[in-house]
Design brief:
Length: 293
């Protein structure tokens, strides 16, 4: 079915209000976009959502929707209708799920690890292959932060090790660790849908008996040989004492979801407990790793 998207320009104070306006006009979905490439990081649970100073609020409408009425309504309630900046675009009618599937291809990380869409044949049957269908959860390996962590896991000897995947998303790092020889992995995520996706992917890969999944409120007290946290800089900073507590003495730690300008402060924070290696950078994203003293 074809769609129409209506974009409104907003600021951090008006973005939520304009979202409500679009919903009131019959938008099927409303999305916020940064209009100036200014990073805003994931709020901690319970924190107030913060928007960009220059925000695009986009409403998605059925192509048959009367957009003249929508614009008339918006102009009638806008504080200054002459200053209301908007753009209407017709979206091509596509099978969006098929479009996404067609652009997710097998990818190799390090020397032996492949991440393969579950609906395609593996390129190297004798390699370490993770079959993945991320569903609604984050993590396919295409983002630099995930790629950095996968390459790091491939570089370790995980045989018989216990791993904590903090912010497990689709389970991609958990599955990679298990396929690379880990004895057990504990996956933790704030999103129940992420835990469902991780569980389904673990079953698809035949490793569900070695993967335990938890919401943060239920996370166990334990020490792990390897801890990987691919979340974002804000939560990595706030949750540093929690994350570091999982790492056993002499254990390996990797952190990602970090932009270059955020790396130094996080290096100092985690350097209180770990001997940190030089940062690894890919497309302006950083992985920090080290060994707990």
């Amino acid at each position: 079915m074809p769609w129409i998207q209506l974009r409104l320009q907003a600021d951090e104070d008006s973005a939520e209000k304009q979202s409500d306006w679009l919903s009131a006009c019959g938008a099927q979905a409303v999305t916020f976009f940064d209009n100036k490439d200014t990073p805003i990081y994931e709020p901690l649970p319970g924190d107030e959502q913060v928007y960009w100073a220059d925000t695009i609020v986009m409403g998605l409408y059925d192509a048959a929707h009367d957009m003249d009425k929508v614009l008339t309504y918006l102009q009638s309630i806008h504080p200054d209708k002459n200053a209301m900046r908007y753009k209407i675009e017709q979206l091509e009618d596509k099978d969006w799920e098929r479009e996404w599937m067609d652009n997710f291809h097998p990818m190799k990380f390090g020397q032996r690890l492949w991440i393969c869409p579950s609906w395609l044949e593996v390129p190297e049957p004798d390699a370490v292959n993770v079959m993945l269908d991320p569903g609604l959860a984050f993590g396919t390996g295409t983002h630099p932060t995930t790629a950095l962590c996968l390459t790091w896991l491939d570089s370790l000897d995980l045989t018989g090790k216990t791993v904590v995947d903090f912010g497990c998303g689709s389970g991609i790092l958990s599955l990679a660790a298990l396929k690379l020889g880990a004895k057990a992995v504990i996956g933790i995520d704030i999103d129940p849908q992420a835990l469902q996706a991780s569980k389904a992917n673990a079953e698809r890969n035949g490793v569900s008996d070695r993967l335990s999944l938890y919401l943060p409120k239920d996370q166990p007290n334990l020490k792990a040989d390897v801890v990987v946290a691919n979340i974002l800089a804000g939560p990595l900073r706030e949750l540093a004492p929690t994350i570091i507590e999982f790492v056993t003495e002499g254990g390996n730690l990797a952190l990602s979801g970090i932009l270059e300008e955020q790396a130094e402060s996080l290096q100092q924070i985690y350097g209180q407990w770990c001997a940190m290696d030089p940062m690894t950078v890919q497309d302006e994203w950083v992985r920090l790793d080290g060994i707990k003293r």
